[in-house]
Structure formats: C-alpha cells, structure tokens
C-alpha cells in the first residue's frame, strides 16, 4: 500500500508564504507525475499544480501561476509546493496526489494515490 503524507499547512496572513511537503511511503511504486489539488468548503476539488518527472515539466492553474512553485525528487517520491503572496481565496485543504497516468493530469480522477490533506488558512 502506498501512502502519501502532507505537512506544512497552517494559518498565515494575506501576502505571506507557506511551504507544503509531501512524501510517499509504503511499497515501491513508480509515478509518472505528482500534483497538488485543493478543496475549499462547499466547492469541488480543484487542480493547483503538477510536476512530470521526465523531463521535469511543471504546470499550474491560472489562479496560482506566478505565486506558487512545485518541485520534487522523483527518486524519493517527494513533492513540495512553495506558496507565496497568499490570498484569502487560497484557503482550502490541500492534497498531494500521485499518478502513473500520462494525460489529463489536471483532473483529480487521473490520480490513484492521495494524501490525507493539510489545511491552509489565509486571513485578510
């Protein structure tokens, strides 16, 4: 069984920064990509960013482009999300995910492994 564990969430004022981390453990698996999604109360889970390990391509939702940076280590199956210039609308539970799929990587349905989520709250 593969487990993803997130850390790094918390409460921050608007304009501040947070760094989320995610590590995979359990049986060895080879992911094609890892991503971050978020879900605010009463809303659907939405894509934030992903990283394809080979050749190291990253992609972001328009709402976070220029403010968030995804990075990771394929060999260790870890992925981080550096979040800068945070806004109140970034408040959500953030989830780490991993997939062996190659297309549709902005869709939650393409990911087979999920973390338990970490709360990010941005106060105005």
Mean pLDDT: 93
Radius of gyration: 13 Å
- Percentage of β-strand residues: over 45%
Largest sheet: 7 strands, mixed
Into which percent range does the helicity of residues fall?
under 10%
| Tally of DSSP β-strands | 11
SS-based structural class?
A: mainly beta
Count of runs of 4 or more consecutive helical residues: 0
The residue ranges in which pLDDT falls below 50 over 5 or more consecutive positions are none
Distance between the termini: 40 Å
Give the assembly state of these chains.
single chain
Q: What do you see in this structure?
A:
This protein is an all-beta fold and 124 residues long. It is built from no helices and eleven strands. Strands 2, 4, 5, 6, 9, 10 and 11 form a seven-stranded mixed β-sheet that branches.
Describe the structure concisely for a colleague.
This protein is mainly beta.
Please outline the helices and strands.
Blueprint: E1 2-7, E2 10-13, E3 18-26, E4 33-39, E5 46-52, E6 57-60, E7 68-73, E8 78-83, E9 92-99, E10 113-114, E11 118-123
Parallel strand pairs: 2-11
Antiparallel strand pairs: 1-3, 3-8, 4-5, 4-9, 5-6, 7-8, 9-10, 9-11
Task: Kindly list the characteristics that best describe this protein.
11 strands, 0% helix, 124 residues, mainly beta
């Amino acid at each position: 069984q593969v487990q993803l564990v997130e850390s790094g969430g918390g409460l921050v004022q608007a304009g501040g920064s947070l760094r989320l981390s995610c590590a995979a453990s359990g049986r060895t698996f080879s992911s094609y990509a890892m991503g971050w999604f978020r879900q605010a109360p009463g809303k659907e889970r939405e894509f934030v960013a992903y990283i394809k390990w080979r050749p190291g391509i990253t992609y972001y939702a328009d709402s976070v482009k220029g403010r968030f940076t995804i990075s990771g280590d394929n060999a260790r199956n870890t992925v981080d999300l550096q979040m800068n210039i945070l806004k109140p609308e970034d408040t959500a539970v953030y989830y780490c995910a991993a997939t062996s799929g190659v297309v549709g990587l902005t869709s939650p349905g393409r990911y087979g492994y999920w973390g338990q989520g970490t709360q990010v709250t941005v106060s105005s």
